[in-house]
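Bit of a strange request maybe. I'm writing a small parser for structure token strings and I need a real example to test against, not something I typed by hand. Could someone generate the tokens for this chain?
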Amino acid sequence: MVNELSRKFLHAAGILIVLPIFYLTVQQLMQILAFLTAGVFVLHWYIDFRQLRRRRINDSIRSIMETFGEKYDEASVKENEKFEENFFQAIKKEFLRDGEQAIFLPSLYFFSSLLFTLIFFGKSYLFFGIIALTMGDSAAALAGKYFGKHKIFWNREKSLEGMAGFAVVTFAVTLVFLAVFPQLAIFSAWKLATFVGVVGAVIESLPILDDNFSIPLLIAIALNIAAAT
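Reply from user aminoacidic:
Good idea to test on real output. This should exercise your parser:
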């Protein structure tokens, strides 16, 4: 329970990313998100595909050393790999649920979703996707874990209680956010907060792409459609 609470607290703390967005131009933000997406992609390959990476790099080093008549120290390599693996397993224990494997893949989904949202819909749409993903998704996970008794028929891993937690928390945080920054309201604050909460809860419940990718981008798409009608 403590580990899950700490994980979701860190997840919810991601809402702080909205603060620097206010002070960055679209071009600056695009460059930063592109850099973060590329950087996380490299880390994802380096860590989450470490078995493949080790095999390919070790085979290459072995071939080079044998070409020059040098001895390949297999024992030393295995010792280093064991140390590296213990380090990565400690990270996984703190940040991932049981059964989850990828450490950096959620971050890759998140930054790429924000990048696509920025490119196609503009900076103002980023805020609502971030609120829904950080606060709403965390609330849904905790509400579903500790109170979820009524499963959703289209996704048996989700519950009505989780959806309700997502909608209520996202609605409340969005409403407070718009009270502080009313210039970001695409339409009426109450309608916007309700829309983001309900639509976000539905998106989060769908058994489709990873939430870190689908929530920010699909909320931006839905908001854009709603604003145009």
